Amino acid sequence: MYRKAICVLTAGLLALGLAGCGLEVTSEKPVIYLYPEEETRVSVTLDFDGDLTTTYPAYGEGWMVDASSDGTLTDPVTGRQYYCLFWEGITDRTYDFSTGFCVAGEDTAAFLEAALVQLGLTDKEADEFIIYWLPRMEGNPYNLISFQTTAYTDGAELTIDPAPDTLIRVFMAWRGLDKPVEIAPQTFTAPSRTGFTAVEWGGTEVRP
């Protein structure tokens, strides 16, 4: 069981300036998986409130791939295969820390394993998420973590054609802390993955 501080948002959190953070931050490693029920040509465009810094494969005017049911993505021109679409960018949007979790650094892996299941990721998707973020988080005394909803999606709008039956977007804003703070907990309901499913995960470290 991970140690956490979950209570009512207090002045201690407000003093850290984290109830809403408007610093320039990087949306790191958002990756997009596509799982149609049968092989389908899919276009994906992103309306990002900021500046894209890296995309792979190259974004251009958008991505166009032939997606297979196992998640394999094939460039229809070159034939090169990918397992996801990757983008990264810089934005000055405000992220919401009014609810979330304060987790001891040593308990971060266990916390993320449990949370990501509740957010709808598969074990494979969660593994990739944790492998990317854990090295930067587990050495901190504590981590303040809040999974974003409209504070993220309103500034990074995805258009997928054909539209997926299920769209799951997981974006974690977090900050390392020396001491724990109290914060009202978030609650999650894992969506049912039915039909053509598209999944995105990413995150950002918010620094002072």
Give the SSE order as H and E letters: HEEEEEEEEEEHHEHEEE
What is the helical fraction, as a range of percent? 10-25%
Number of helices: 4
Q: How many separate domains make up the residues?
A: 1
Segments where pLDDT lies below 50 for 5+ residues? 1-24
The radius of gyration is 17 Å
Strand order of the largest sheet: 4-8-2-14-13-11-10
How many DSSP E strands? 14
Key structural traits:
208 residues, alpha+beta, 7-stranded mixed beta sheet, 5-stranded antiparallel beta sheet, 4 helices, globular, disordered N terminus
Structure overview:
- The chain is α+β, with helices and mostly antiparallel strands.
- It has one domain.
- The chain contains four helices and 14 strands.
- It has helices at 11-15, 108-119, 123-137, 150-153; strands spanning 20-21, 25-35, 40-48, 51-56, 63-67, 73-74, 81-82, 85-91, 95-96, 101-104, 142-147, 156-161, 166-177, 197-205.
- A seven-stranded mixed sheet has the order 4-8-2-14-13-11-10, with helices on one face.
- Helix 2 packs antiparallel against helix 3.
- The radius of gyration is 17 Å and the shape is globular.
- Residues 1-24 have low confidence and may be disordered.
